[in-house]
Amino acid sequence: MHELFVTDRAAQAHPELVASAAEAGVRVSPITDRAAAGLSETVTPQGIVAVCALLDRPLDGLLGSTARLVAVLDGVADPGNAGTVIRVADAAGADAVILTGDSVDPHNGKCVRASAGSLFHLPLARVRDTATALAACREAGLRLLGAHGYAETELGSVDAAAPTAWVFGNEAHGLSPEVLAAVDLPVRIPLYGAAESLNLATAAAVCLYTSAMAARRPAG
């Protein structure tokens, strides 16, 4: 954190936060409610706005040999979806999230809010070239599974306990033919009711938690 802007009302409501920032050497600047509204993207700002360093890290060294679960978002455009998947990946104990191609900036305000703090909990990388990201996952010993609604293989027939990088595509178009050809196996979530599909964040939750629970299931 580089600087903290805070209204009088917010400073009175959260004195411990202001004190912690000051003790850490962060500049604390008082602002008016009108200024807080201008700085914030929300309709009802809380009165506290921080200027922070970017959180993403280089791909090199992001994944170690012990990585077991990674989420790759390729061309995911909606910040709410991206933030929710980051939150799900964090809850499922994933080792990292990688955003590739034309994916939304994870520092987007809506994405940050949708992550509900998870943006700060797990390693995050942005890589323009999807092939480079997939190669890094494979080099880390991860199997590449692509979530694809028209895949022949159903999720229930996959060895979900194996170290895996789940690859999720654009909300409207899914995974590109190039990415589908690059993954080890396209996988679909079966639909038992009348719904035509699941949205991205829901599908990611099902896939990531299937892997997470399988990896933690007691042997025998």
Q: Short description, anyone?
A:
Belongs to the class IV-like SAM-binding methyltransferase superfamily. RNA methyltransferase TrmH family. By secondary structure, the chain is an alpha/beta fold.
Q: What does this molecule look like?
A:
It comes from Amycolatopsis thermoflava. One of its GO terms (molecular function) is RNA binding. With 220 residues, the chain is of the alpha/beta class. It has helices spanning 8-13, 15-23, 33-39, 79-91, 109-115, 130-139, 177-182, 200-216; strands at residues 3-6, 27-30, 48-51, 69-74, 96-100, 124-127, 143-147, 153-154, 164-168, 185-188. The protein folds into two domains: 3-51, no CATH class; 69-216, SPOUT methyltransferase, trefoil knot domain (Alpha/beta knot). Helix content is 34%, strand content 20%. Helix 5 links the parallel strand 5 (96-100) and strand 6. Helix 4 (79-91) packs parallel to helix 5. The longest helix is centred in the last third of the chain and has 17 residues, at 200-216. The mean pLDDT is 94.
What are the key terms here?
three-stranded mixed sheet, transferase, 34% helix, Alpha/beta knot, seven-stranded parallel sheet
Structural class per helix/strand content?
alpha/beta
Our count of helices gives: 8
In this structure, how is the largest beta sheet organized? 7 strands, parallel
H-E string: EHHEHEEHEHEHEEEHEH
Number of strands: 10
Q: Could you tell me the strand content as a percent range? A: 15-25%
- In CATH terms, what is the architecture of the largest domain? 3-Layer(aba) Sandwich
Note poorly predicted spans.
Answer: none
The shape is elongated
CATH fold-type name of the largest domain: Alpha/beta knot
Q: Bin the helical content.
A: 25-40%
> What number of domains?
2
Quick check: average pLDDT?
A: 94
Q: Give the terminus-to-terminus CA distance.
A: 47 Å
Query: Strand sequence of the main sheet, in spatial order?
Result: 6-5-4-9-7-10-8
- Rg, rounded, reads 20 Å
User: Can you tell me the CATH class of the largest domain?
Assistant: Alpha Beta
Quick one: CATH superfamily of the largest domain? SPOUT methyltransferase, trefoil knot domain
GO molecular function, one term: RNA binding
GO biological process, one term: RNA processing
Keywords: Methyltransferase, Transferase
Family: Belongs to the class IV-like SAM-binding methyltransferase superfamily. RNA methyltransferase TrmH family.
